């Protein structure tokens, strides 16, 4: 008895540990594959009016209800795609068939899928981007509550009432409802941020995020304390600037070293990248070059994005001595020296980040104005027939 009791306790402990570990692993999920299907339209009804003293009541079959749509809804309080790991199938309700006495079937209920801003919807087979919930207004977030109908439900079939005429006054057939559409999708999340913090582990990214914002990331004197991206909001001159802190990058990250480079996609929409280099580290000379190389291995566009260079931990004696040499190594870069511990250089860095974000928004607005300022627009979408409808 005692042996069986201890074995059952051991298995229960293993199960609790597995569930806890599973919850921590899927706490931040930025990819998911789901199947979605719109509802089938309800069939039309074949029925005839049968009442006392009305021997030839005629057809009275109602129409079927419309199938439900598949709708994506942008919700800012949804932060990750972890809920899609528990539910991979989303199917809208079918329309209810029509009934006698010309009663219309009930429309099927829509299926609404909430997604965070920055979500990218792709075709799972071709990897083609179908919708990007973050490409509006120069990469800024879409509006809260924005709805996008991805799949329309099938139309309901006509009842036999629609088919009566002078020749056939008692039609005994009706139209079936249109079938729904099923698609397999790949959902990816690319966080919406203005500034991306890039650096080696323990370069001071989380400390800077903690100093600038109300975010409270984990800070500890060992590498890889940041295992998932963290966001924080810096309010400056009545303007909110969103900072993104991603896990540290090490040499060989594009080959899978450390936590890899999979989190780099979360800084692809930023206006500027801030490269943080710890001047107290032994590899401070090579750090900036290694980081640029890893970014280029992930995306060439990310490697040429506007950037500033930040030397950290200037409160340490060895870092302060190396700062002048560090500036001389990169004269063409916009370089700042800071110490989160003493507060040195933090105000200058805040102003620099503000300028980068505002300049990016101005250039984006000007580019959008030039694209839409040609004075012409396409009228082909006004009719379904295009040129054929004019004949």
Brief summary:
With 391 residues, the chain is α/β, with parallel strands linked by helices. The protein has helices at residues 2-25, 83-86, 205-212, 284-298, 300-303, 317-329, 346-372; strands at 31-37, 70-74, 89-91, 111-115, 119-123, 129-132, 147-151, 182-189, 195-199, 230-236, 239-245, 272-278, 307-312, 335-337.
Please name the fourth-level CATH homologous superfamily of the largest domain: P-loop containing nucleotide triphosphate hydrolases
How do the helices and strands follow one another from N- to C-terminus? HEEHEEEEEEEHEEEHHEHEH
**Biggest sheet overview:** 6 strands, mixed
CATH class of the largest domain: Alpha Beta
CATH T-level fold name of the largest domain: Rossmann fold
Q: What's the mean pLDDT score?
A: 80
Helix content: 10-25%
Total of DSSP H or I helical runs spanning 4+ residues: 7
Shape: rod-shaped
Number of strands: 14
Strand order of the largest sheet: 10-11-9-12-13-14
- Low-pLDDT parts are 13-26, 136-141, 374-391
Q: In percent, how much strand structure appears in the residues?
A: 15-25%
Tell me the layout of helices and strands.
Elements lengths: L1 H24 L5 E7 L32 E5 L8 H4 L2 E3 L19 E5 L3 E5 L5 E4 L14 E5 L30 E8 L5 E5 L5 H8 L17 E7 L2 E7 L26 E7 L5 H15 L1 H4 L3 E6 L4 H13 L5 E3 L8 H27 L19
Parallel strand pairs: 1-3, 2-4, 9-11, 9-12, 12-13, 13-14
Antiparallel strand pairs: 1-8, 2-7, 5-6, 5-8, 10-11
Provide the descriptors you would attach to this structure in a database record.
391 residues, alpha/beta, Spo0b-associated Gtp-binding Protein, Chain: A, Rossmann fold, 2 domains, six-stranded mixed β-sheet, five-stranded mixed β-sheet, 24% helix, rod-shaped
